[in-house]
Design goal:
- By secondary structure, this protein is of the alpha/beta class.
- The protein is built from six helices and ten strands.
- The protein has a five-stranded mixed beta barrel, surrounded by four helices.
Amino acid sequence: MKWGILGALDAEIELIRKEMTITAETALFGTVYYEGMVHGQQIVLVCCGVGKVNAAVCAAAAIDKFGADCIVNIGIAGAMGHGLHILDVVISSEVGFHDQDPVMLKYYPKHDFFPADQVLADLCDRACAELPEMAGRYRHGRIVSGDRFVSDTETKQSINERFAPACVEMEGAAIGHAAYMYEKPYLVIRTMSDAADDAADETYDNFIEEAARTSATIILKMLDLSAQA
């Protein structure tokens, strides 16, 4: 199996790139796709950039051009769910768009949410369970995406009332949507860098690096466990 691994920011893929044995680099769509091996697993790694269109295009390319058999989106997010703290992790149970008009549901693919792959989710559970620092810090939940950095309490409350997500970010739903269209399994793994509230800008700056490393550490453990299977 060839893994497609996407992060929106360089910080989100940096640790994986350092661990890779890179066999090819391809410049495409304003970014670079790295092909190679980690823990004996074939991967294609890309920093897709921020936002839904960037994420969807890069996910499609990872599958269509680089032969990814599954897609895992890693990175950071804003905490929405009750009891979720900075540097806690959300493993997607499903993803959806918080900025999509309901009229979209009349048209293909007629989905408000895209379920994550259970096999990948179970593997992620095992990876978190084997990382001592993750004890009590991860949960499964709904992740919603939109082309907006949520950094005020009013917007957070509105999204919570409409969707009750565990966290909010800007790419995961587009990646889940693309994976659905290609009939490929996907998973989103997000570490909380902020609380999507009035203090989000400052909190994000303080925790982005550590949050990004946490998500990358989890996918590296998943690759290790997959190699042992």
